[in-house]
Amino acid sequence: MMERTQRNMLLRVESSYRTVSLAALQVITGVAPIELQVSARKYLYDDRQEDRKLARIQARAITLSEWQNKSEQEKTKALWSKRLIRDIPEWVDVAISTS
């Protein structure tokens, strides 16, 4: 259910055809999969460090690493996206710094 909602949102943001896979939309827009976003929020809630900025940086690094691993394990979806965008953390960081 959450993935469907995220997919519909990303289709509108990207103005893409509905045949584009969720994995490709996530990579192109730089929006992490919803389950990874939820686990990052849980990490922040459970961790409760004094230094919130450091905790956010750690949560982001974990999310990007898990997202890269998930992308590399996927063998059938977003093949063009994977061919063009091999390193998701680098892609997302470039997209953030230029916006």
Shape annotation? globular
- In the predicted model, the low-confidence regions spanning at least 5 consecutive residues are none
Biggest sheet descriptor = none
DSSP strand content = under 5%
Radius of gyration: 14 Å
Tally of separate helices: 6
> How far is the first residue's CA from the last residue's CA?
30 Å
User: Structural class, please?
Assistant: mainly alpha
Order of helices and strands: HHHHHH
Secondary structure: helix percent: over 70%
Overall structural domain count: 1
Q: What is the total tally of β strands?
A: 0
| Average of the residue pLDDT scores | 81
What does this structure look like?
This protein is 75% helix and 0% strand. With 99 residues, it is mainly α. The protein is globular, with a radius of gyration of 14 Å. The protein has helices at residues 2-14, 22-29, 34-47, 52-73, 79-84, 88-98. The protein has one domain (2-93). Helix 1 packs across helix 2 and helix 3 runs antiparallel to helix 4 (52-73). The mean pLDDT is 81.
